[in-house]
Design goal:
Number of helices: 1
Distance between the termini: 159 Å
CATH superfamily of the largest domain: ntegrin, alpha v. Chain A, domain 4
Largest sheet: 5 strands, antiparallel
Radius of gyration: 48 Å
CATH class of the largest domain: Mainly Beta
Structural class: mainly beta
Strand order of the largest sheet: 19-20-17-23-24
Helix content: under 10%
Length: 348
């Protein structure tokens, strides 16, 4: 009796199945399998597995109806911009001289992952950088809320500008809303510049100090110098001192000193001096008393046959006086004259 021999011819691509287990953006690896679908022993077959998530080569052997799994380590940068869904996995199989391509599917499961990082630095210019990144695989809504008080908001700039600004009492709330695609980031920079208010505060403090200093001054001396024309071609300057009482003072003795290399002209303006000591190079004026707001103008002319080039500085003027039985002293500002060498006559 003769039995017929049954031969089942199967194409190589129909002899295998390929697939993968479900995974998501938080997964560090994925399990992929290759399955022998027929009753045949495959020895040393080459397998190239390709997908949007990985690309590997392997050499394996599969017995009849055997399934072999591979755990593949994932590089998240390769799929950080991919959406959730089903993706194709391709297996290029080489068995001897024969090659075939087998396709399967792999499920990339939905996962909503939005990470937030914040970096803050600076003192005078306080800078805050906030980064929101969609590390998931679905479109996600990013909401960022910052608050400032009514003072700091005046010196704060934003990049980009907030979508919503709300005020609640003395607090201002700034909100940024954005739909982030997978792999997309939102960068927010907030800068508060305290330099301007700091300078303003220092200016106010300086003004307060000057006002207090001014208010404590009983007698103010202001000294100035101006150039005058001289008939003989000498270098000549008119020195003026204005003494102003801010409070009642008495026994006021104003003393001025002449610089070296100059002579004193015999003509005086305003109040006449009480004493002139050319040897000691000293001029003195005396007033029995000065009422609040009362001023006295003291002026004189100095000259020199030696020309002056550059800066010519004069000594400060000093006043010694009494108030409420106590002796006080006041000093004028520094006066100077800058000129080239000039020779012009004194005005009458």
């Amino acid at each position: 009796m003769i039995y017929p021999l049954m031969v089942n011819v199967v194409e190589l691509k129909d002899a295998f199945g390929v697939g993968a287990e479900e995974f998501d953006p938080a997964s560090n690896n994925v399990t992929v399998y290759l399955e022998n679908l027929i009753s045949f022993n495959f020895e040393n077959i080459g397998v190239k597995l390709k997908s949007p998530f990985f690309n590997i080569d392997k050499t394996i052997s599969l017995g009849p109806y055997q399934r072999q799994s591979f755990e593949i380590t994932l590089n998240k940068d390769d799929f950080k911009s991919l959406m959730a869904g089903f993706y194709t996995i391709n297996a290029e199989i080489t068995a001897g001289p024969q090659k075939a391509n087998v396709e399967g599917t792999m499920q990339f499961s939905e996962k909503n992952i939005v990470t937030s990082t914040q970096d803050e630095y600076g003192v005078i210019v306080d800078t805050k950088r906030i980064t929101k990144t969609n590390e998931g695989n679905v479109v996600s809504t990013s909401s960022t809320v910052l608050k400032k008080n009514v003072i700091s908001r005046l010196f704060t700039t934003f990049s980009p500008e907030p979508d919503v600004v709300e005020r609640q009492g003395l607090t201002i709330f700034y909100t940024w809303e954005k739909q982030l695609k997978p792999g997309e980031s939102l960068n927010i920079t907030v800068k508060t510049n305290w330099l301007l208010p700091l300078l303003a505060a220092l200016l106010i403090i300086a003004i307060v100090i000057l006002v207090k200093q001014f208010s404590r001054t009983n007698l103010a001396l202001k000294k100035k110098v101006t150039f005058v024309r001289a008939k003989g071609g000498e270098f000549a300057l008119k020195v003026s001192v204005i003494a102003t009482a801010r409070r009642y003072v008495e026994k006021v003795n104003v003393i001025d000193r002449l610089p070296m290399l100059v002579k004193l002209h015999e003509k005086f303006g305003g109040e006449m001096p009480k004493r002139v000591d050319e040897k000691a190079r000293r001029i003195e004026w005396y007033f029995e008393k000065l009422q609040p707001g009362e001023s006295r103008i003291l002026s004189y002319i100095i000259y020199s046959k030696v020309g002056v080039l550059g800066k010519f500085a004069l000594p400060t003027t000093t006043a010694i006086y009494e108030r409420d039985g106590e002796v006080h002293e006041a000093e004028s500002n520094h006066a100077f004259f800058i000129a080239e060498q000039i020779r012009k006559p004194i005005e009458d």
